[in-house]
């Protein structure tokens, strides 16, 4: 609730409400399994869950899928089984909070300390707000997780020298091929990974970069962002 001074106070029923998160990541899943677990239409998934929980958010990156709910773990488990998903791990209560903070801090990432996860958490919250599946509890958790993630990086410099997976791929290409200057490079896919790779390649003084994708329109969008 909000008082006349604009201060926001979270009441006990919000702070101690049930919280659960179900996740699958690169730690326990192959790329193929992650792709099968992923939800291609995020908004449709959230809308299907609207009446099952007080709130739900979906966090999807190249290497993880996390479903965060304002609700109990058993209901989340049953819902994901109905969605024909398997192999996930469920955390509840303080365990869910610890897992979320670990993810936000970059400690659970494939590239330890990478910064992209902070933007991905904000995007998950924004999408849930747009389709009206968010809740005050979930927004509190995401905002706090982002804040903690920023503080962890400031205090520990865990992200010093950290690169995105896309940058790591380009570095590997340079190790194998030598300089990329003057080369013609083909980027396959215009999703999140394709964007990260293309951004890293843009600084390599290539002669040309080509984008191949199943849908022409998305390839054009990526090309436009890279210039």
Summarize the topology.
Blueprint: H1 12-15, E1 20-25, H2 31-37, H3 42-49, E2 55-60, E3 64-70, H4 73-82, E4 89-92, H5 94-104, H6 116-130, H7 136-156, H8 165-177, E5 184-188, H9 192-201, E6 208-212, H10 216-226
Parallel strand pairs: 5-6
Antiparallel strand pairs: 1-3, 1-4, 2-3
How would you explain this protein's 3D organization?
The structure is a single chain. By secondary structure, this protein is of the alpha+beta class. The protein folds into 2 domains: 12-156, Beta Polymerase, domain 2 (2-Layer Sandwich), CATH 3.30.460; 165-226, NAD(P)-binding Rossmann-like Domain (Rossmann fold, 3-Layer(aba) Sandwich). The chain is 48% helix and 15% strand. The chain is built from 10 helices and 6 strands; from the N terminus they run αβααββαβααααβαβα. The strands form 2 sheets. It has a 4-stranded antiparallel sheet with strand order 2-3-1-4. A two-stranded parallel ribbon has the order 5-6. Helix 9 (192-201) links the parallel strand 5 (184-188) and strand 6. Helix 6 (116-130) packs antiparallel against helix 7.
């Amino acid at each position: 609730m909000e008082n006349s001074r604009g201060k926001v106070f979270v009441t006990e029923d919000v702070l101690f409400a049930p919280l659960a998160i179900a996740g699958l990541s690169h730690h326990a899943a192959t790329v193929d399994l992650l792709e099968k677990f992923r939800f291609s239409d995020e908004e449709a998934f959230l809308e299907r869950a609207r009446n099952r929980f007080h709130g739900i958010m979906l966090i999807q990156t190249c290497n993880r899928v996390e479903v965060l709910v304002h609700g109990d773990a058993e209901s989340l488990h049953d819902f994901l089984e109905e969605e024909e998903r398997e192999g996930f791990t469920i955390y509840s209560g303080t365990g869910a909070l610890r897992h979320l903070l670990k993810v936000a801090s970059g400690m659970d990432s494939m590239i330890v300390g990478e910064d992209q996860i902070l933007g991905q958490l904000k995007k998950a919250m924004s999408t849930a707000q747009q389709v009206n599946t968010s809740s005050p509890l979930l927004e509190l958790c995401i905002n706090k997780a982002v804040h903690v993630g920023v503080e962890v990086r400031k205090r520990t410099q865990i992200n010093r020298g950290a690169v995105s997976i896309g940058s790591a791929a380009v570095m590997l290409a340079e190790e194998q091929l030598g300089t990329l200057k003057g080369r013609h490079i083909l980027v396959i896919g215009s999703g999140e990974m394709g964007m990260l790779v293309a951004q890293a390649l843009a600084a390599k003084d290539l002669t040309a970069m080509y984008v191949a994708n199943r849908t022409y329109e998305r390839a054009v969008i990526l090309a436009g962002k890279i210039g």
